[in-house]
Every structure is written in structure tokens, then in C-alpha cells.
């Protein structure tokens, strides 16, 4: 499965959430509302989630293994950096 499109939909300068992203796979399946977050160790992605009855949040969609998560995160953060460069 290939990532065929990454769209940075919203970018913020203030706060820990830096952007909201949509990712398209194989030109046929899209995942919206992936967040780029500034953490203590740098930027990372947070998958779309919803609040459950206990008050916690549960991912709606997410990678099944760490290799896929790393690949997805690298591609998203690369596109985010390009978007920042285009704004400046």
C-alpha cells in the first residue's frame, strides 16, 4: 500500500497541535484528522480518535505495527516541513 497524497489542512503556530492532515492510500482510501503534535522529544503524529464513555480517547484508525507507523510519520512530517517552507 502506497501513500499517494498528503494534505496539510490546518496549521497553527501557537499550542502543541501544529497541523491537521489527511492521507490518501493508493488513490482510493483516505484518513482524515491525523494531528501533528509538538511533544517533549519533537514532532509526532496522533491518529484520529474519539472520546469514549470512560473519558479516554480511542484511535479510530491506526497502523498495526511500528514500521508502518514510522513510515507514515516520516512521510507526513516531511510534507509538513515542505508546507512550512512554502509559507515562509
From TrEMBL:
GO terms for biological process: division septum assembly; sporulation resulting in formation of a cellular spore. Gene3D superfamilies: Stage V sporulation protein G. Keywords: Cell cycle, Cell division, Septation. It comes from the Bacteria. Could be involved in septation. Belongs to the SpoVG family. PANTHER family: SEPTATION PROTEIN SPOVG-RELATED. This is Putative septation protein SpoVG. It comes from Maledivibacter halophilus. The gene is spoVG.
